[in-house]
Design a protein that fits this description.
Blueprint lengths: L3 E8 L6 H12 L3 E8 L5 H12 L3 E6 L5 H21 L2 E6 L8 H24 L1 H6 L18
Parallel strand pairs: 1-2, 1-3, 3-4
Helix pairs in contact: 1-4, 2-3
């Protein structure tokens, strides 16, 4: 069986190793993938890391993990990174699933860790679904599914 290359890119700026959680989640849920990890300094480096994973390492999809800080400049850098990730998806015609957790999203360290773990796991599962079970996503369209927070649920059950 030929495995599908899946890229995971993360940063040294992040204060939690979400890539480790995401990789374990994917490895626990399938034997059909070969994970290629590429760590960069910060979120603005994620677009080129993602492109390199796709073009130089043959990845079919990339999970880009980042943890922007709480300051306005951090949010601006995250926005710039998001635009770069979107552009890279268009250039490569491959999905790059962005998984950012902002440091000021939670009140306590414990809540922030739980959010990092939940979001990384759920995005990792979505990577696998995009590769192997897109119909699952279609069946759950409009259901208010959330990553890092409780599901919101549909507006009309």
């Amino acid at each position: 069986m030929t495995k599908v290359n899946v890229g995971v890119t993360d940063t040294t700026f992040a204060r939690y190793d979400m890539a480790k959680i995401a990789i374990k989640e994917m490895e626990d849920n399938t034997s059909k993938v070969n994970i290629v990890r590429y760590t960069v300094p910060g979120v603005k480096d994620l677009p080129v890391a993602s492109k390199k994973l796709i073009e130089e390492h043959g990845c079919e999809i990339v999970l880009a993990l980042g943890m922007p800080g709480p300051e306005p400049i951090d949010k601006q850098c995250a926005h710039q990174a998001s635009l770069g990730i979107i552009g890279t998806q268009i250039l490569t015609n491959k999905h790059i699933i962005e998984c950012f957790v902002y440091e000021d999203e939670a009140e306590t360290t414990e809540e922030l860790i739980a959010m990092c773990e939940d979001r990384a796991r759920k995005h990792a599962r979505n990577v696998l679904r995009l590769l192997f079970d897109r119909e699952w996503l279609t069946r759950h369209a409009g259901q208010g599914l959330r990553q890092g927070h409780p599901d919101a649920g549909p507006l009309k059950p």
